[in-house]
Design a protein that fits this description.
Largest sheet of chain B: 4 strands, antiparallel
Structural class of chain A: mainly beta
Order of helices and strands of chain B: HEEEEEEEE
Shape of chain A: elongated
Number of strands of chain A: 10
Radius of gyration of chain A: 18 Å
Oligomer: heterodimer
Strand content of chain A: over 45%
Helix content of chain A: under 10%
Structural class of chain B: mainly beta
Distance between the termini of chain B: 58 Å
Helix content of chain B: 10-25%
CATH class of chain A: Mainly Beta
CATH architecture of the domain at 35-82 and 99-135 in chain B: Sandwich
Shape of chain B: flat
Strand content of chain B: 35-45%
Number of domains of chain A: 1
Largest sheet of chain A: 5 strands, mixed
Distance between the termini of chain A: 24 Å
Radius of gyration of chain B: 23 Å
CATH topology of chain A: Immunoglobulin-like
CATH class of the domain at 35-82 and 99-135 in chain B: Mainly Beta
CATH topology of the domain at 35-82 and 99-135 in chain B: Immunoglobulin-like
Order of helices and strands of chain A: EEEEEEEEEEH
């Protein structure tokens, strides 16, 4: 098991501008993510502070799992920004997943600005693994 | 005899030029943020009576955040843990940091600690720090002589 820990990084990485442009105003960030694999699942953890639960879109198209989080760009009423260290923006990231994932059973949980995607492995993938163990 | 090091005029000129260039670039990107010296990154908002601080603290429980206000200094500290991995689990990718954090911010005035309000939602901490009554500027009327 990996025990190495990373230092906390206050800076967010911005999404590189690609061929297609965003229709929404504001910046877009790549959420920092952890991916780990257990015996029967693959879990993706993403930091998306400032996004409300209902403003997260997750889609699976062929083998690409895409996550979009839309932040609330509203600023505090009556206050002027005196010092800025971070910018509020949307989040976007996609991962290619293997065909060993049971596509119909993918689950998502969101709490305290962190999204957990739980990707269960298919029966075949699990069986195959057991076969190898026996062999 | 001790003599203070004085940069020669050419270096001073270079410094001046550099400052000038920095200013030009800052003007060019007026919305750019300063880099945060530590975790968490904070934004500071102000109005006449109070300062509002927002900070990005994803993945931290409400109870794991410590807020301390002493006169004019706010300290945010806490710990960010990692998921409890079951036996045999392996990381494929690890970009999210974890551990203890602490940051202090000095405010331009003394805070009325009784009236400090804080909320935490979707990984964003919001702290409202009202200026203490005693510290507020007094208006002085100008009398016509």
């Amino acid at each position: 098991m990996a025990t190495e820990t990373k230092a906390m990084e206050p800076k967010k990485d911005e999404l590189l501008p690609e061929a297609s442009e965003r229709t929404r105003d504001g910046r877009c960030f790549v959420p920092r993510s952890d991916i780990y694999e257990t015996e029967d699942q693959i879990i993706i953890v993403m930091d998306m502070p400032g996004v409300q639960k209902d403003n997260i879109e997750i889609s699976l198209e062929k083998t690409v799992l895409a996550v979009n989080g839309y932040a609330d760009l509203e600023e505090p009423d009556g206050f002027a920004l005196a010092r800025a260290e971070y910018e509020v923006g949307d989040y976007e990231r996609s991962f290619r997943i293997s065909n060993q994932i049971n596509r119909d059973e993918i689950e998502a949980e969101y709490k305290n600005g962190v999204l957990h995607l739980i990707l269960p492995k298919t029966e075949e993938a699990l069986k195959r693994k057991i076969d190898v163990k026996v062999g | 005899m001790y003599r203070r090091f004085r940069p020669t005029s050419i270096w001073r000129e270079m410094d001046r030029l550099q400052r000038e260039m920095n200013r030009v670039f800052e003007d060019f990107y007026p919305n750019r943020t300063r880099s945060a010296p530590g975790f968490p990154a904070m934004n500071v908002w102000a109005d006449e009576q109070s300062v509002l601080i927002t900070a990005e603290l994803p993945g931290i429980d409400n109870d794991d955040i410590d807020l301390n206000v002493l006169e004019d200094t706010l300290t945010i500290s806490g710990e960010r843990g990692t998921d409890d991995l079951p036996e045999g689990a392996v990381y494929h990718r690890q970009e999210r940091g974890s551990g203890n954090f602490s940051r202090s911010l000095k405010l331009p005035y003394t805070v009325d600690t009784q009236k400090v309000r804080a909320s935490f939602k979707d990984g964003i901490l919001e702290v409202n720090l009202p200026r203490s009554e005693v510290d507020r500027p007094k208006k002085i009327a100008v009398k016509v002589g």
